[in-house]
Automatic annotation (TrEMBL):
Origin species: Paractinoplanes brasiliensis
Name of the protein this chain belongs to: NADP-dependent aldehyde dehydrogenase
Oxidoreductase among keywords: yes
Ranges of residues in domain Aldehyde dehydrogenase: 2-262
InterPro entries from the UniProt entry: Ald_DH/histidinol_DH, Ald_DH_C, Ald_DH_N, Aldehyde_DH_dom, Aldehyde_DH_Superfamily
């Protein structure tokens, strides 16, 4: 049986499964993943070139994600059950009995990422959130770690229900699956070019489906004059670590840093050893972008870095705001690797307005401020950062995405294809659900979450009869 056949057969089984049973197999999947870490981590290191400490941290994060979504499934809040009692005296005319909840979409296609072989791959957040929603998952494995993908799926399938998780390989196979009518939604993490092409395919289907793509992000960070005067050494150190970590192969790497005047960061990059890039396609793309940036008039190289067969070291360039505006087509594109552009600005100039004009949607945006700092200029800047990003950071660096209910990992295009959703945090489950209302249904035909006796014990928001005449009173 193909992965798509198996997913289609599993969909009604998972959809009708009580939420605590989904929770149990998600916890079992997390435990199985951790138990296999000594086998999986070396395989991941061999295929990706990422370090063992980084990968061990990532596999732990992946297990935490699975357990977090076990909690979400067990609680049942994600179903958003709303019960409106029949009301013959409703102010607009008799109201029927209405019972609304969210149901699983069906089989989900997950295009795995290259840079997180655990956390955004076969066992990653997209898979965890879809399974918690009650959707089977077909993962299109990334060509950068094919053996790890297969082995991870084998480990998980020892504890998951039959057909809940499948893996396919190859670009053509991924496109064919995206066009298959059994697939009801797709998630993607990768390049802008590939993401746009896949989104177009999803939209052009006879029955279009939701496509949740994470595509590219510059993640601008601003340092105020007060912050630079207060703790310049700390800021320089943090910036260097954020740019060079995992060889800059992170969607949250700070690609633009705005500083007031001189900013000497070169010494902080000393001693960074060469790091292999994930696969030849990323190496070629990074080399091309680096050459474009280094060849831009008005750009000064402060850390030249290197690109060799043995790996890459960070490249840092500096320019001013006028040059950034003049050469925006070259400088305002993501470089997926350890390269960042430092932009000098004049204190007091309307930087918020400039960012709004220049920078497209990003996953994150940040600002470093001094203790107690506040001003009209700073408030305008923060408003501008909120408009262009899904997560606004203060006195921190964007490379680090907490796996927690309140996290938002998404932003305006081109960061993501849908700025109203997230791929990290418990709200990501909403991508794989759709609302259904039962109107005047006989009690015996109601699904468990909508019944008055509530056998699944899920939260129910009730609107009793007789309330409508008082609506609006709280506004006073």
């Amino acid at each position: 049986m193909s992965a798509l056949d198996a997913a289609a057969a599993a969909a009604p089984v998972l959809a009708q499964m009580p939420p605590w049973e989904r929770a149990q197999f998600l916890v079992a999947a997390a435990d199985a993943l951790l138990a296999a870490a000594d086998e999986l981590v070396p395989l991941a290191a061999e295929e990706t070139g990422l370090t063992e400490p980084r990968l061990r941290g990532e596999i732990k994060r992946t297990a935490v994600q699975l357990k977090l979504f076990a909690e979400v499934a067990a609680a049942g809040d994600y179903m958003a059950v709303r019960l409106d009692a029949a009301d013959p005296d409703f102010v607009l005319g008799p109201r029927p009995d209405l019972r609304r909840y969210l149901v699983p979409l069906g089989p989900v296609l997950n295009f795995a990422a290259s840079n997180f072989p655990f956390a955004f791959s076969v066992a990653g957040g997209d898979t965890a959130s879809a399974l918690a929603a009650g959707c089977p998952v077909v993962v299109k494995a990334h060509p950068g770690h094919p053996r790890l993908s297969d082995r991870t799926a084998q480990v998980l399938n020892t504890v998951l229900p039959a057909g809940a998780l499948g893996v396919i390989h190859g670009q053509d196979e991924g496109v064919a699956a995206l066009k298959d009518e059994r697939i009801t939604a797709a998630a993607f993490t990768g390049s802008l070019t590939a993401g746009r092409a896949l989104a177009a395919i999803a939209a052009a289907r006879p029955r279009p489906i939701p496509f949740y793509g994470e595509l590219g992000s510059l993640n601008p960070v601003v340092v105020t004059p007060g912050a630079l005067a207060e703790r310049s050494a700390e800021i320089v150190k943090g910036f260097a670590a954020s740019v060079s970590g995992s060889a800059g192969q992170l969607c949250t790497k700070p690609g633009l840093l705005f500083v007031p005047g001189e900013f000497d960061a070169a010494a902080a990059f000393d001693g960074v050893t060469p790091h292999r890039l994930l696969h030849p396609g990323i190496a070629d793309g990074y080399t091309h972008r680096r050459d474009e940036v280094l060849g831009t008039p008005g750009v000064t190289v402060t850390v030249e870095g290197s690109v060799t067969a043995g790996g890459v070291t960070p490249t840092l360039v500096e320019t001013d705001l006028a040059t950034l505006v003049k050469h925006r087509d070259t400088l305002l594109q993501e470089a997926f690797g350890p390269l960042s552009v430092v932009v000098r600005y004049t204190p007091g100039e309307p930087l918020g307005a400039a960012l709004t004009e220049l920078v497209e949607g990003s996953l994150t945006a940040g600002v470093h401020v001094a203790a107690g700092e506040d001003s009209h200029w700073l408030r305008e800047l923060v408003t501008a950062l909120q408009a262009l990003a899904g997560r606004v950071l203060f006195n921190g660096w964007p490379t680090g995405v907490a796996v927690t209910p309140a996290m938002q990992h998404g932003g305006p295009f081109p960061a993501t294809t849908n700025p109203t959703t997230t791929s990290v945090g418990t709200a990501s489950i909403e991508r794989f659900l759709r609302p259904v209302v039962y109107q005047d249904a006989p009690p015996s035909l109601l699904p468990e979450p909508l019944r008055d006796d509530n056998p699944w014990n899920v939260p129910q928001l009730r609107s009793p009869a007789g309330q409508s005449p008082t609506w609006g009173s709280l506004a006073g």
